Amino acid sequence: MIDRAVTFLVPEGIDDPARVSGGNLYDRRIRDGLGGQGWRVSTVEAPDAAGATSTLRGLPGGATVLVDGLVGLWAAEGIAAAAGRLRIVVLAHMVAAAFPGATDATMAAERRMFAAADRVVVTSSWTAKELSRRGLVTSERIAVAVPGVDVAEAPGEGPKNRLDLLCVGVVAPHKGQDVLLDALARIPEQGWTCRIVGSSRPFGDFASSVARDAQRFSGRVRMTGVLHGPELAAEYRRGALLVAPSRVESSGMAIAEARGHGVPVVAAAVGGIPDTVAGGGAVLVPPGDPEALAVALGAWMTDPALRTRLRTEVRAARVGLPTWAGSVSAVARALEAS
């Protein structure tokens, strides 16, 4: 019988409210869920490659370690050195090689990390297929654990002409907030507002550029910074439409949360997003295309029948949304099989 003890190597600050991200939220839910299922989880925050490598060296032979993929990229050499001595499971939130501008060094580190892992847990079927397609991981070593959704109480019908747009996610080039602002600039002022929720810290120069660009909308676009808990839930209740203009996306946790709150979505058809919105309640547009996004947003704003249809579809889709208990169970099975 497997020893139900696991060391979870995560990025520094995953519990820091100022560093809210989909990856940090996922890690916390898995950590807490495994503990609730009888696993003894020792969480170690790795500030850098040296810290992660030191932790790996200090673990006894045969120990099970779950490594967040971001940490794994920093410490690929340390993971490779520990292969065979430790039972290594990599939790991959993304495929680094899929990002525009990924360097040769990053792609080499990613390949080294995956080659050393006994098992790889991914957060979407798209990621699993992408890893196989790129020859990074064989399919039999991959387990899929999609993010769960906290389904809110049944939403009310609400006003039919609300035009409050919401965009949730770290303010970063791969999330495409610049594409959203470019699209909004093409739409006549029709009473709409847009709130951009997310941390500006990890990609400061990009976030500053987005903030400057937002000023041209005379207060109709507001950047709230990080919100969590009741504040974030209030934004989902307030928002009439979630906009996800990502250039790269493995699954789209904000999209799933919006669907849990009964909020329709306009999103880029990229990565795992089409899988996340399966079941209806969404309009997909090509990634990085502000004109196509503007057309989709304009249709939402001017077509009451479209708004009604998408609201009806997203409410019906809430019944089959994945749960966090299912996510934790999938990760636990991967740990047991590694």
TrEMBL record:
The keyword Glycosyltransferase applies. The keyword GTP-binding does not apply. Residues 75-152 form the Glycosyltransferase subfamily 4-like N-terminal domain. Signal peptide: none annotated. It holds the Pfam family Glyco_transf_4. This is D-inositol 3-phosphate glycosyltransferase. GO terms for molecular function: glycosyltransferase activity.
